[in-house]
Amino acid sequence: MKRFRKNLILFAAGVCTACLVALAYPHISDSMKKRLADKSVFFGHSGKNLGWGNALEATARQNNKLIFLVVNGHEFKPDDKFKKLLDEYFYVVNFDQYKWPADYMVLQNIYERATGNAREFSAAILLPRLAPLFITSELSGDSNSPIAAAAFALAEKFSENPAATRTLAKALPEILGNSPAMEAADINGFSDGTIAWDIEGVRLNDFFSKDTSKYFTAVLAENGRLAARIYYLSPKFDAAFAAALKAQVALIKRLNDSPPLLDRLIIARALFEIAIITDSRGYSEPLVKFADSIVDMIHSDGRMIENSRHSITGENALGVQVLTLAYAYTRDEKYLDAAKKIGEHLEILLKTFSQMPSDADVGTASQSSSWTYAFTAKAFGNLHYMTGDQRYIILCRQLFDEWDKLFITKDGIWSANSYSSPTANVVRPIEFEDSRLPSYTGEAAQIIEYLKRADPTFDAPYGDKIKAISLYMLRHFKFNEYSTASWKLSQVPDISQRHIGATAK
């Protein structure tokens, strides 16, 4: 993500300056500017309410209208003055982040990196080409609100000179594709190309000894998994053992706060791994209870469905991982049976669609992200390990072939969004760091390393990809960054013979 972050600095400098100053800023009061600065970022109710997708861009360009995007779940009732503006100059789009996770992550990351704020955005104003002009976490239908002020100012300037903003949009891929020279990697902790895992264990113990509440769930979970894996290498790494136990405490606390299902799955995966490796039974009750709740979520067709909301493919794949770990932890066959049932549905999704959908309901149109593919590959890998069924290796091959076809970039690494994604013409970022989710490149590196050991023929097509990912990481990231734990997990020496304490059937 560092490359993406540095690209976004250019993005903010180029786009913010052009749009914020030239388009809207002169028309906004000083008090409104202060409110905007905290929760929004500039990048410079229609009678026809369109859905998100490539057809939206074509329609908006043809009719020369801006796009007012509202993230699903956020109430938006514009007053009469605001509604009149939207009717004249905008298409209002209800954006379902569950069906379009790649595009959501692109816009969310732009928002986070440009504002330095971790809130989830709720609305955005886009050019007809879907490039962002304004993104905010503060949505209101009041015509005196910050987003209304932005909409009025941008509509006025866009109607006066649409060509200027179209030119800006066309320049975005070039702006984003050129980053400043990267800093040299801090290779402290490396010796002759080998990571000093004892030192890393000490660092992780220090990390978990402090307040970790400010960190994203995935950063905590992946570093907890890493601490446990380091201890597994050698019992003499007692600092890593201490770090793993401290990670347990932090993760259980966060699990008890009842975060969204996706967060709970990421937490549970880490907690099961830690418990298996450290032989800890102190938190068995909440872990088993959570595994049971996953079993109860499974629909007759194999999908996990929580409270009748969307069944998300990535969540289903993480559910498989948690259930296989629950089986390794308890030896209760019901968890493995449940994991295989969900796996069968994932297989249907892979074989039925030209691109794996984000929504696990086969009757619902949606488009996946690279996280969908990474989590699903890991799910198939876990099922292969637990069952010994070669069918899962074949599914992994099919999945990686499809992922390469749709998401690969000129760098030979997958972008977060596919080439057919509505935001593909704006930016195709490559995510290397853990944040809200574990890095999909790190997840992929982990499963490929497992598959190379499980099936040596896997090494030929994917060994070079792992080298490319790892080389990029070593060149452009400091090893002491806690946001790269997913990738570090792929570098842990071969412990697959016992694989986090489990034994294949």
Radius of gyration: 23 Å
- Estimate the helix proportion, in percent: 55-70%
What is the number of helices?
19
Q: Just give the CATH class of the largest domain.
A: Mainly Alpha
User: How many structurally independent domains?
Assistant: 2
Spatially, the strands of the biggest sheet line up as 1-5-4-2-3
Please provide the ordered H/E string of secondary-structure elements. HHEHEHEHEEHHEEHHHHHHHHHHHH
Structural class: mainly alpha
Q: Which CATH architecture of the largest domain would you pick?
A: Alpha/alpha barrel
Distance between the termini: 39 Å
Mean pLDDT: 82
Strand content: 5-15%
Low-confidence region ranges: 1-28, 31-38, 40-48, 171-193, 495-505
Shape: globular
Remind me, CATH topology of the largest domain?
A: Glycosyltransferase
**Biggest beta sheet summary:** 5 strands, mixed
Number of strands: 7
